[in-house]
Amino acid sequence: MIGLMSDPVEQVCGALDALGISYERYTHPAVFTSEEAAEHWAGIVATRVKNLFLRNKKGDRHYLVILEVGKEADLRRLVKVIGDDRLSFGSPQRLMGNLGLTPGSVSPFGLLNDSRNAVTVIIDEDLRGADRLIFHPNINKASLTISVPDFQRFLASRGNVVRWLRI
Questions:
Q1: Are β-strands 119-124 and 62-68 bridged in parallel, bridged antiparallel, or unpaired?
Q2: Is the pTM here over 0.90, yes or no?
Q3: From CA 119, how far away is CA 142, in angstroms rounded?
Q4: Please, which contacts does 93-98 make with residues 24 or more away whose CB atoms are closer than 8 Å?
Q5: What is the phi/psi pair of residue 143, to 5°?
Q6: Which of 41, 98, 126, 138 has the most crowded CB, counting CB atoms within 10 A?
Q7: 19 near 154, Cβ under 8 Å?
Q8: What 3-state class would DSSP assign to 6?
């Protein structure tokens, strides 16, 4: 697991640099909700997203669901879209065990810590039309913007199952 480096921002930036992916980096005070983040994202030209770490009823499948911050995540409907049984939020222990992250820092960059490729990534189809997306780099005291094609390159480098679905 890479995620135990002392600075998660440097870990993520190093991984993106190694892939030749460009990004813009921003620092801000720690934020725990998308509303708090919005205060610090004002003026940043990027589509704001939220990242939900979910598990199925048995706890044997985990999902990272990425959608625009203003979109509602109806878990009952999402179950039908994904094709699994009941979904609920994963515990902080599951989040740490699967993505090496803590609540408030959920990000697709946590896939750097998923050496088993155990987490399926579900991305709302509407995000394909965005120019840039904004994510925390595995800590909630910073944000990175990245183009959608570069984000897709990052995801392809990880080996996790990625599904673009209409949420």
A1: parallel
A2: yes
A3: 23
A4: 94/53, 94/55, 94/59, 94/62, 95/53, 98/53, 98/62
A5: -145, 150
A6: 138
A7: yes
A8: coil
